[in-house]
């Protein structure tokens, strides 16, 4: 929301044609000239595009809205506005039989009926999973170094139909999932287990952790063989691909990672495919950025119940078997007993400042001004804040990216061993930008890197050796996934043939792809925070935009900082950091307002 500078009492929103068209549709629907109804439609569409599936009338009632450069409308108070919408039959109450485009999902909150349906569907299907087996089993985690909450999560994942598992990077969420899989298959080797994630990169990371769960078992072990047969795909593949839909329709346990990135619509469609008997594990970090699309499903789920509790009979069983007391949940109509939030960061010894600042961002226990001052004053080996003036940006980038200087030479060497070295450099270090446009956006920074390394694309648009590429779409033919990082190389296929350009990827360095085989992609020296979700890097340079952009928020700051596993430099101004901290982008998918 950006206010008109000349008249701060007038709200000038970034309306687009889609918003205006939906407002016009509501007028045609009601067949009356009711500007308040049209504006409600425009605002609902505007909020939906901003990631919020619901409109709260209290946020706009009584305000003057600029429809365009000429037209402005002053909205009535909430009660009068709600009455107009109900009388026009463009909106209805939940108990009404009217099929209206909009639905009141709370006293003052509106949703498109389709999205209200998604929310009701998710709520109904997840509530049906809130139960524990009465024949409880104590998981076998012998030889592991799990802490109390990890043990609690494994217990819940083995014995209940639903586990909502939250925790920051380094807290061991995928380790917990590996132990759950191992115990489930030990109990029932024929159990069909699948795993999923919103992006190919996140799905690939989870696959590696699942394979590691059986790595210490003998190769001849039937349990190890069963673990190695667990397979997975992206959420889009499960929903849109007929082969994966068929797999999902006979699944006994589905594990989904990086759940903060799941939209309301996608999650509802996925649950429609799952059999009612399927158990579900949802893992993610509730404090990270939510889905680019509409909704904040995982955050809503984590907030709807008490964390780190068990039903009373399960709590008694857990205590009697491991001599550790755990709180028990009552008969609340929420997800108490099914939410575990991991807290111990196992990376804290390697990156203490990153872990400390991430914890403070998560806990939200300090005043914004105090936390901002702490972040901007930090000058440690693993976390350094820097204010880079416009005139200093080139030299700062040149120094920070010195390890990339040899990429073109390595990639022109025609030596696969040198290509592997180049991939290690690319995999360990990453420039992460807040925005795509502007002098500190991904576009400008990528162009700067191409010029600095003297590898600007040729006139035919082909990339030169040393260029880092980022795949932006999954491709079943090549096996490449959205988020895969690769480099352009000069390949000597045969001594008799001239060298040709190819692309090698971090995910499969031994294979060379032709440029035509690589699916939709872009230059990837610098990537956005959203693109970086689900990945981690040893060294990160995180660039704030240089101005108080509306995309800056606490969740974005937290997500960007936690992409660094070893060290990070945060480039920005104290004003930007404070603006981000005070600009939380909390959403609600309204999952628990409908009955």
Could you explain the architecture of this structure?
With about 600 residues, the chain is α/β, with parallel strands linked by helices. The chain is about 35% helix and about 20% strand. Strands 11-10-12-13-9-16 form a 6-stranded parallel β-sheet, with helices on both faces. It has a 5-stranded parallel β-sheet with strand order 17-26-25-18-24. The protein is globular. The N terminus is likely disordered.
Chain-wise SSE layout:
Layout: E1 2-3, E2 10-12, H1 17-30, H2 35-49, E3 54-56, E4 64-66, E5 72-74, H3 78-87, E6 91-92, E7 102-104, E8 109-112, H4 113-127, H5 148-159, E9 162-166, H6 173-187, E10 193-197, H7 200-212, H8 222-228, E11 231-234, H9 235-240, H10 242-248, E12 253-256, H11 264-273, E13 279-284, H12 297-303, E14 310-311, H13 312-322, E15 328-329, E16 339-341, H14 352-363, H15 368-377, E17 383-386, H16 393-400, H17 407-411, H18 416-428, E18 429-433, H19 442-452, E19 468-471, E20 485-491, E21 500-505, E22 508-513, E23 521-523, E24 526-528, H20 529-532, E25 537-543, H21 554-561, E26 564-571, H22 574-582
Helix pairs in contact: 1-2, 4-11, 5-6, 6-7, 6-8, 14-21, 15-22, 21-22
In short:
With 595 residues, the protein is α/β, with parallel strands linked by helices. It is built from 22 helices and 26 strands.
